[in-house]
Amino acid sequence: MARKHSTAEDAQIDLTPMLDVTFIMLIFFIVTTSFVKEAGLDVRKPEAATTEPKVRASIMIAVSETGQVWMQKRQIELDAVRPLVEASKAENPEGSAMIIADRGAPAGVVIAVMDQARLGGVTDIAIAAQQQTQ
Amino acid sequence: MSKKTRASAEEADIDLTPMLDVTFIMLIFFIVTTSFAKEMGIDVNRPTASNTQMSEASKVVAILIKQNGEVQMEGRAIDLKAVRANVERARAEKPDASVIIAISKAAQTGVLVQVIDQVKEAGASNISVASTAD
Question: Can you give the pTM of this predicted structure?
Answer without folding.
Answer: 0.74
